[in-house]
């Protein structure tokens, strides 16, 4: 069951097309990674979902109905551009933000003290924001984002500025919120985080949705016909033997006694066809199916899309 659906959304600013006919569906109770290079259109889409700006065309649906301004109260949004009033005291400011989300003063105070105790930051309550480090301030903003218990949470680069220990703390909290029923949209450049916590992803590049699916399905798609070989012998002989059968995607020689290479087999070529060919020219140490990391998938998908876009433009000329 989906909680949010984006249908054919487009947005243009002056001469810049930020989104071009983008569609996606976010399952309820999932952590959904919204990925893409800088300037791809991710933040514009997030702002449209938050009713900060409106699309030029297309629609966004929440729980099967067109998104309205009132729906924003059921959304928690932590933007990449953090903003706290430096001269205000932490507790005072946290209550202020909670009141904006519809909580009474007493309910906001109760929940905030619970969260501050949970994070072990009770001593920050009376401090001015300007006394906090960037990481400390981001903890406060995370708390104010989730305090009203929204069904949909949107985090834009939530780990920016955090050390590894606090980044792991935040990951655990995001997973806990998901397990308690919240749906999370998670925008990041950190592919390791995507592999650790995301259930589904959409990759936006140059205003288009170029890849969507569950993390498992995406990795399965990009692992197809890929193998990792460790061998000893002449790399040039291996490359010659593979002509017309496979492409060598990368090579390494960390061990002087063994080289490693990632192969992508050509269409119609099976591993059983490759192994004897390789074995005739080098000594195989290991040969196994290779599952690329999300970082490798990100780079390949963006590069492939850029190549297609460039080819289309040349054909138009």
What's the CATH class label of the largest domain? Answer: Alpha Beta
Instruction: Give the CATH architecture of the largest domain.
Output: 3-Layer(aba) Sandwich
Largest sheet: 6 strands, mixed
CATH-derived topology of the largest domain: Rossmann fold
Q: What is the helical fraction, as a range of percent?
A: 25-40%
CA-based shape: elongated
Count of DSSP-assigned helices: 10
Structural class, from helix and strand content?
alpha/beta
Q: What is the C-alpha radius of gyration, as a whole number of Å?
A: 24 Å
Total E-strand runs: 14
Give the CA-CA distance, first to last residue.
Answer: 44 Å
Order of helices and strands: EEEHEEEHHHEHEHEEHEHEEHEH
* Global mean pLDDT: 89
Strands in their spatial order, largest beta sheet: 6-7-8-3-9-10
Summarize the structure in words.
- This protein has a six-stranded mixed β-sheet, sandwiched between helices.
- 38% of the residues lie in helices and 30% in strands.
- The relative contact order is 0.13.
- It is α/β, with parallel strands linked by helices.
- It contains ten helices and 14 strands.
- It has helices at 42-49, 90-100, 105-119, 134-146, 164-179, 191-197, 215-223, 235-242, 271-279, 294-316, and strands at 2-13, 16-27, 31-35, 57-62, 65-66, 75-78, 152-156, 183-187, 200-205, 208-214, 226-232, 246-255, 258-265, 283-289.
- The chain has two domains: 2-220, 3-Layer(aba) Sandwich (Rossmann fold); 224-289, ACT domain (Alpha-Beta Plaits), CATH 3.30.70.
């Amino acid at each position: 069951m989906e909680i949010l659906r984006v249908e054919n959304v487009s947005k243009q600013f002056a001469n810049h097309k930020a989104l071009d006919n983008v569609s996606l569906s976010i399952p309820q109770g999932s952590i959904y990674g919204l990925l893409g290079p800088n300037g791809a259109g991710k933040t514009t889409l997030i702002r449209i979902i938050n009713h900060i700006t409106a699309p030029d065309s297309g629609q966004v649906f929440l729980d099967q109905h067109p998104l309205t301004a009132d729906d924003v109260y059921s959304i928690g949004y932590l933007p990449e551009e953090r903003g706290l009033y430096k001269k205000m005291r932490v507790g005072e400011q946290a209550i202020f933000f909670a009141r904006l989300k519809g909580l009474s003063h007493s309910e906001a105070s109760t929940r905030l003290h619970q969260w501050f105790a949970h994070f072990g930051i009770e001593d920050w309550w009376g401090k001015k924001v300007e006394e906090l480090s960037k990481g400390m301030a981001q903890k406060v903003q995370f708390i104010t984002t989730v305090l009203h218990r929204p069904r949909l949470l949107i985090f834009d680069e939530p780990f920016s500025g955090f050390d590894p220990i606090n980044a792991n703390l935040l990951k655990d909290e995001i997973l806990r919120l998901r397990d308690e029923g919240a749906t999370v949209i998670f925008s990041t450049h950190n592919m390791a985080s995507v592999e650790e916590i995301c259930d589904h992803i959409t990759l936006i590049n140059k205003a288009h949705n170029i890849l969507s699916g569950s993390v498992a399905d995406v990795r399965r798609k990009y692992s197809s016909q890929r193998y990792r070989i460790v061998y000893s012998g002449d790399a040039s002989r291996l490359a010659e033997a593979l002509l017309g059968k496979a492409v060598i995607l990368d090579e390494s020689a960390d061990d002087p006694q063994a080289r490693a290479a990632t192969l992508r087999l050509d269409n119609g070529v099976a591993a059983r066809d490759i192994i004897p060919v390789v074995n005739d020219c080098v000594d195989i140490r290991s040969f196994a199916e290779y599952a690329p990391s999300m970082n490798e998938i990100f780079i390949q998908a963006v590069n492939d899309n850029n190549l297609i876009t460039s080819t289309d433009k040349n054909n138009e000329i």
